[in-house]
Design a protein that fits this description.
Elements lengths: L2 H16 L9 E7 L4 E5 L12 H11 L7 E8 L9 H10 L5 E6 L4 E4 L1 H4 L6 H4 L2
Parallel strand pairs: 3-4
Antiparallel strand pairs: 1-2, 1-3, 4-5
Helix pairs in contact: 2-3
The protein binds tetrahydrodeoxyuridine (THU).
Tetrahydrodeoxyuridine (THU) binds next to α2.
Amino acid sequence: MDKITEQLYQAALKAYQNAYTPYSKFNVGAAVLLKDGKIIAGSNVENASYGLSNCAERTTLFYTYSQGYRQEDISKFLVLANTKKPVSPCGACRQVMAELLNEDVEIILTNLNQDIMKVRITDLLPYHFSGDNLRE
Ligand code: THU
C-alpha cells in the first residue's frame, strides 16, 4: 500500500471505529481523497427505525459534497469493513457513488486485513440510472 492509500485507510479505520451500529454491530468506514490532498472520512450511522440507517459510503460522500467539493475534486474513495474479502458496497450506495464519483475515480475496497480490490464505479454498477435518463 502506498503512503497516501495508507493515510486514506487510516482515516477510514478511524471512522469505522466511530460507527454507530447498536443494531447490526457491523461497522463500515469510508474515506475520500481530494485532489487538494484533504481526506474526508465517515461511517455508518444506524437508527432504531432500521430503514433510516445511513451507510458509510453515503455519509462520506454527502458530507464531502456538503463541504462544497464535487466530482472533479475527488481522486480516490476507500471503503472498509471487517469482512473476509474486501467489503462489497450495497446497491443503494453504488447508485449514489455513480452520481457523485467520476468514472475515473479509483475505488479501493478493503477489510481489516488490508486485502485490496481496486475498481471503478462502472465495474460496480454498469448501465446505471442517471440524470441523463430523466432528460431523454
Ligand atoms: N453498510 C454500509 O455502511 N455500507 C455498505 O455498503 C453495506 C452496509 C451498513 C449499513 C448497516 O448499518 C450495516 O452496514 C449492516 O447492513
